[in-house]
Amino acid sequence: MLKSVSLITIIVFTAVAAFAQEVFTEDDRPKIGLVLSGGGAKGMAHIGVLKVLEELNIRPDYIAGTSMGSIMGGLYAIGYSAHELDSIIRLMDWNTMLSDRIPLSEVVPEEKHDYNRFLFQFDLTPKGPKLPSAVVEGQGISEQMNYLTWHVAGVEDFDDFEIPFRCVASDLISGEPYVFESGNLVTAMRASMAIPSVFSPVRLDTMLLVDGGVLDNIPVVTCREMGADIIITVNVGFREKPNFDDFKSIGDILMGSAMIRSNYEAINSLKETDILIAPDLTGYSSASFFDGEAIIELGEIAARERYDELASLADFLSLYPKKPVSKPELLDKIYIEDIKVGELKYLDKTFVLGKSGLEKGKWYTKDEINSGLHQLMGTRYVQNINYTLAQGKTGYVLTLLPKEAYRSKYNFSVQYDNIYKAGAIFNVAFRNKLIKGSKFAMSLNFSEYPIFNAEFLDYRGQRQKMGNYLKTRWEFNSVPFFADDGDEVGRIKQNYLNVEGGFFYAPNTKSIVRGGVYFRRQLSNSGKGLLDLFTDDVDKLGNNWWGLTLNYNRNSFNDQFFATKGSKLDIRLAHPLGFGTIYKGSDSSYVTFDDLLDIPKESYLKAKVTFEHIIPVNSRFNIAYSLAAGGATERLGSAQSFYLGGLESTSRSGDIPFPGMISKEVSARQFVMGYINLQYQAFNNFYAKLSGGAMDYRNEFENLSFIPVQSLVSEGVVFGVNLIFAYNSIIGPIEFGYGRSSLHNKSRYHFTVGFPF
């Protein structure tokens, strides 16, 4: 039963007041306390309740909240209206808010390839891999909360807000609830909603704070202690006794397990409640963030079910003078007069400031500050970064609070495609570990066609924009051969090795230049391959060569696999300086493989240029066009040829994707191509892609000009088309598609699962 300052009591108070002759003052008015419970995404129902309270001119004098209730209550307490909160919720990108991912365009170039490419990531300690403390650090939520609280930066006492506010967190060290009544509001809200195992705990002084709902999900006692006489409670958590329907997802089970004690405490809290509003959120879970509109509406429906009781309270309160309400001025940009950096263990403050790109004495918008945070996270030296603002003499003092990433990482993933079959991917990376200012990473794709990758970077300078690099890549590939009718007749098993070293310069997060010396070897072995069909007295054949290389890459895509804006330009130049032939077999068979062993010229310039640009049409649909060309100043040997065809997700060294074909369907010494890709996001993480293009290639140097003078109907032009259906899953992209080209006029099917190597 509810404590009975309920509808009957309020009516009595109203009747007494109506017949009283005295004049009521603000000090005489009973103080209204609003208690907002936790419940994850179900906490969005609080907004619907606030709408009804505003409609009745019931303005709480105190607000106490837990978890999602702390966010809704905290923002309401600093001046946001119910309709403003509604707009904020509806406009939020929850995919970004509930992850620590940053746009690929803000990751440094030398880290782009591996970013968001693994299923699991662990800290690699001396005792082995260490599980993370939570699924996400909460970077997206912290960024949004920081921006929404700009106008109260520097207000330390929560009693100084438009409405005095408290929120509750749980201290893992003491096992006691902790009530925030002062300090940094973002830290308070973030700690109060740190759902165990979902969001990482917040460390504050000697405490390690998690979701307040673990110990006190309905903080009625806290609200009473603030001075509230009449308590309105909105409960979006479990009912007094949950049932099987309350545990539909892993999130519900984790939340229910963590809140067993809190549910017992809630019974006493509800007894101290005067008006209880409990929305019926059956069918929704703590993770239903994409159902905000419906959940908000259910909150409003629940409040209207108590409308008569609330209206009686409103009538009663109308007898008293109204407290003047001031609307705070929200800020679009702020002036940063100084920048400080919190405590660091391994990194240098100069590095943190330099990589963020933030400078004192400038005006900044939310997006500009967040971009600076992302650029720092994009170095991969920083796991996540929060900030605080304090009032200065002429503006604000910004304090960056980076959480340094563990310097040794272990990553794991799995993948499958219908070309190279199943594989398990293992990766280890050491940043700033072996040598100060260095990165060393190794990756192994353990499969029927394995790949080994290793790279060492030795950075120079405080901002680490330049340095030396050494990398190697070994692949065991399968090269198909086709009959004239397009049927595959067999495959050659091929080993490819590249070792390269030199210098790099990355002036920003989008561009990098590398130049140095390379050694490459391409070798075909006998044994269960097409080579054995030609002869039985050749063990291996191939080439090795070395020379100079120069590469410029500019990548501004916003996502690794489903980009919606940006462009990518890659220019690769190679100048061989020496060749060698590898052959082990009979002299009589050598002439059979003359084309594979041939070295026409030892001195030439080889170039490959690829460019892709994405044009966003709307939030779900974009058009991309791709152009590519490759060739040399002299006729190339077979080992130096370009491989054309297939998807980006199945490409290996030297491959250039083209629709309508499988990987390595065409080998060419020179080529030009262009194609258009249409990408439509049907809903959530489901995509449809339609690609079509044209390509001209030749194996004779004299027959191909890079000026498009040939007719599109000429015999040498190949047309291709792909239709791909994709799903962006937790284990990586899943793609299924069909393609066809005019080269062989054969159906080509594509199926891939997982993060490509």
Explain what this protein looks like in three dimensions.
- With 757 residues, this protein is α+β, with helices and mostly antiparallel strands.
- It has 17 helices and 35 strands.
- The radius of gyration is 32 Å and the shape is elongated.
The end-to-end span amounts to: 61 Å
Shape category: elongated
Number of E-type strands: 35
The main sheet comes to:
16 strands, antiparallel, barrel
The proportion of residues in beta strands is 35-45%
Class from helix and strand fractions: alpha+beta
Could you state the oligomeric state of the chains shown?
single chain
For the biggest β-sheet, the strand order reads: 17-18-19-20-21-22-23-24-25-26-27-31-32-33-34-35
Number of helices: 17
Q: Can you give the helix content as a percent range?
A: 10-25%
The overall pLDDT average reads: 87
Name the poorly predicted regions.
1-5, 703-714
Rg, nearest Å:
32 Å
Blueprint of the fold:
Elements: H1 7-19, E1 32-36, H2 45-55, E2 62-66, H3 68-77, H4 82-91, H5 94-97, E3 120-125, E4 128-130, E5 134-136, H6 139-148, E6 165-171, E7 177-180, H7 185-192, E8 197-199, E9 202-204, E10 207-211, H8 220-226, E11 230-234, H9 250-258, H10 260-271, E12 275-277, H11 292-305, H12 307-317, E13 333-341, H13 349-356, E14 362-365, H14 366-377, E15 382-391, E16 396-404, E17 408-417, E18 421-431, E19 438-447, E20 451-460, E21 466-482, E22 488-505, E23 511-525, H15 531-534, E24 538-555, E25 566-585, H16 587-590, H17 594-597, E26 606-616, E27 621-632, E28 642-644, E29 655-656, E30 666-668, E31 670-683, E32 686-698, E33 717-729, E34 732-741, E35 747-754
Parallel strand pairs: 1-2, 1-11, 2-6, 5-8, 11-12, 13-16, 28-29
Antiparallel strand pairs: 3-4, 3-17, 6-7, 6-10, 9-10, 13-14, 15-16, 17-18, 17-35, 18-19, 19-20, 20-21, 21-22, 22-23, 23-24, 24-25, 25-26, 26-27, 27-31, 28-30, 31-32, 32-33, 33-34, 34-35
Helix pairs in contact: 1-12, 2-4, 2-11, 3-7, 6-7, 13-14
